[in-house]
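Hello,

Our lab assistant flagged a job as stuck in the queue for most of the afternoon. It eventually completed. Since we weren't sure the result was trustworthy after the delay, we are filing this so someone can double-check. Below is the sequence as submitted and the structure that was eventually returned. Let us know if re-running is recommended.
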Amino acid sequence: MSEPMNDHDKIIIESHERSRQFGVQKDQENPSRILNTDEVARMLDQKSDLIGLCRPVMMQLYDTVKESGFVIFCTDSEGCILHILGDEALVLEAESMGMVIGAYMNEQSIGTNAMGTALNVNSAVQITANEHFTKAFHKWTCSAAPVHNTNGEIIATINLTGHRDNVHPHTLGMVVGAVQAIESRMESLAVQKQLFDANQYAFTLMNNLTFGVFAVDLNDEIHWVNDTACTSLGIRRIHLLNRPIIELFPDWAHVKRRVLLGEVFIDEEGRFLINKMTEKFMYNSYPIKTPEGEILGFMLTIREYRRMLNLVNRYTGSHARYTFSDIIGTSVAIQQLLSYAKKVALSPSSVLIIGESGTGKEVFAQAIHNASERREGAFVAINCGAIAPTLIESELFGYEEGAFTGARKGGRPGKFELADKGTLFLDEIGEMPLEMQVKLLRTIQEGSVTRIGGEKEMKIDVRIIAATNKDLAEEVRKGRFRLDLYYRLNVIPLRVPPLRERKEDIKAMVKFFLKQKAQHLNKNIPYLSTTLIEKIMAYSWPGNIRELENFLEKAVILDGNITTLYESSSQANNQNLPALPNGSGQSEEAVVDLPLMSLDEAEKAAIERAISKLNGNISKAARILNVSRNTLYLKMKKYGIPY
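-- returned structure --
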């Protein structure tokens, strides 16, 4: 009874069968495929990394078998010989049989052999004497094993060949050990690359942050700093590394003490002592800890205070949207005004814009800002008549934490701080209380501001644009406005004409607002009859552009079915007043049973009804009446409506 076939015998039998199917001849002496010189050169260039990976391990293996009659081969994943190392006599003997660099030792080329069969079965294998398919290789014993990359894919083989008399099981073990060393080296290199890539990623990430980062060691020396910090401070990294941070940041001892006590140090204000730098920064600091909680050092992050204010201004609406190209009009009056405004925009001087309500004074203020050298800075607006006298000081100058009952934790910057390097628009300046006019004048003259409850004087660089619908010269004569402040603001006067003085611009405005409102309300642009257009052109529009805009919004809502326009500048038909939502969510007319009345009376009635219907919610009332909250507060103040 014959013994059962073992795995090795099965591998040999199956390999011989494949060799016959591949057409390999028993008496074949050389591999059937060998690259020419040019092909070898290209191949070695392409496989240089793989050869570099395997060569050191092959040299270690050769040191073990040196002068014992063995030669070591390295092939790629297709069985092409990449590198040969061994005793000179044996190398020459192998080369005489075509086992040279560029020769393919796979089963398709030479039949059963350790290199080709190891690739085919994806396993270490030893083939000796007549186990080789071709007779020419019967004198050899070969031990080979495949090399896998970190993804488990075969990328090479390592083969140890000698005369068959030197066959020994340990030979295969040595090859397997060499392959394991190569794969281990590959994994190590992969880990190193991952670490390098991670470090490069981290460094790139840190250097592209929009805020500065310092790493400070336990000796209070700067261990590392990112590019943003260097740029913000205007100093090279080499002048910061290993330097005591307290030399640059005098508050460091205080910061470190708080962090070590476990306190939060977030968004505190401070300055660096570098090249007489006056720029203020916001600071955050955190301990750097090991997983076990041991403190290794500290991280300090800095943000330019002005940059943070610009960011705040951007997302709180403190920016200018309008430019001179947004101002509609071809009349001589408006074209002359535009030409004048464009010239004064380039000046740093204060501008006083005078005009009736609704003429677009803030649009001109924004356009001047956007045409000035301060266009990259903030445009901060404050309505001096819409803020209670007790609050206007904190709005303008800000306050420190604890300055008064209800003061926000950490304090709050005022409009002057927010507008630093930009423009401060003081709307309705004629409504500012006299006591505040003194403080405003001093701030403008000195170019500095101190928060309420604070002691630090902060330098500011702000351009003032003020606006009013009052005759300030007359207010000065009546003692309601300071003469010195008037002269300080009225450096460049600019009068915006009312709509009745530029009627030739009305048609263009009608076209613009109809299109704008239709898009906003997702409706078609309505047709307005010739008669209605004539009435629009003839009407005096005491509310100016704002009144015209509101009327045209109603025209869009009603699809142009408006038969009544204001009868005169002093009377308004109640059908033209805005509709308000009632308690059930349905719409009802704001005024349903009032006779014809003066425009002021109608406006007061509409405001009172809106506030009543909306339970005193000023924001909702302002939206319904299509005016800003500040404008609504002004009108409530004008008509004596309590708020």
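-- support follow-up --
The delay was a queue issue, not a problem with the job. The result is valid. Confidence is low (pLDDT under 50) at residues 566-596. The CA atoms of residues 254 and 354 lie 51 Å apart.
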